[in-house]
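Reviewer comment 2.1 asked that we show a complete input and output for one of the modelled complexes. We chose the zinc ion case, as it is the one discussed in the main text.
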Amino acid sequence: MRRMTARPANAHQARLLRLLRDGGPNSRAQLGDQVELSRSKLAVEVDRLLETGLVIADGLAASRGGRRSHNIRLAPQLRFLGVDIGATSVDVAVTNAELEILGHLNQPMDVREGPVAVFEQVLAMVAKLRATGVADGFDGAGVGVPGPVRFPDGVPVAPPIMPGWDGFPVREVLSQELGCPVMVDNDVNLMATGEQHAGVARSVRDFLCVKIGTGIGCGIVVSGEVHRGTTGSAGDIGHIQVEPDGRPCACGNRGCLEAHFSGAALARDAEAAALEGRSPELATRLAAAGTLTAVDVAAAATAGDGAALDLIREGGARTGQVIAGLVSFFNPGLVVIGGGVTGLGHTLLASIRTQVYRQSLPLATGNLPIVLGELGPVAGVIGAARLISDHLFSPA
Ligand SMILES: [Zn+2]
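Response of the prediction step:
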């Protein structure tokens, strides 16, 4: 099948493509209401887009009096690939141009095996998805990695939990393998982008999205745009110190938030609680499985295990302590909590909220919702598809 070769020629066309992506098929009249173009100018731009094959005429639009016109929609054969590489698992999804998921796979994976092994697995997953018939190729791909990324070149930089990835040309290599343009970003930024596109942060202009997984990071959205910082490490809040002389962290410092509360820290503390006889529930689970994860802590807490509840409350309080500082500094309209540890649910959320409301100024928290993400494990892949579509639906 023919892949997308054209790009919008100007900002009007780019805006029209994004409106069709976010709102679905639409009539010329309704598109005209959303862009500041005269009827004749709009007709010229839509006709040009029809010529490129990026959009097609499809079905009759509702009449507004007078002659009925066709709806305009994005070409139905357009396909985007979203790849969300976590520390311990990877999600791969295929979307159409409206960023609806047509196929999705999740597999366990260890990011420490390095980029070559990880991309071998990702490409095998892509082949599996293609074999189901949802796509025979891609017009673009977005990729998230669990560490800082030098955004313009799509290269991870000194990621603490990703040995072997420093400087690896992810964008270039994948673009060659897939035969399409690729954009790379930090996984937390993509989660924020996903929640902004189709989740709980729709229509919020300024918000924070805190991802608590193996590590902890924060996506910062300012006036609708992800803020990446000078070197791409904005929001790396897992390495803010919460305990002077605290536990050693993978980054080389001590007392980082991530060393005290994250998926990895939680597993370690849960095992200690089990071995020291403080938690019968966790001890039973450890004996059965030989290891513990955040999922076990969540299950133990649900069963009313005191030690498990304490671990979650203490972790939530430490996270809330850091978020309170961010709220005072940034004055967001919303704080989204996401990532694997959200299985800890409302106990975690409650202790984060308590800490933030206690510690921040009332003016900043008066109307501040602190909520769990809505998209769960697909936030990252939707964000990835949105990232590459933003790139492709920009003037060439
Ligand atoms: Zn650290």
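The pocket of zinc ion is lined by residues 239, 249, 251, 253, 256, 258-259 (CB under 6 Å). We note this here for comparison with the apo prediction described in Section 3.2.
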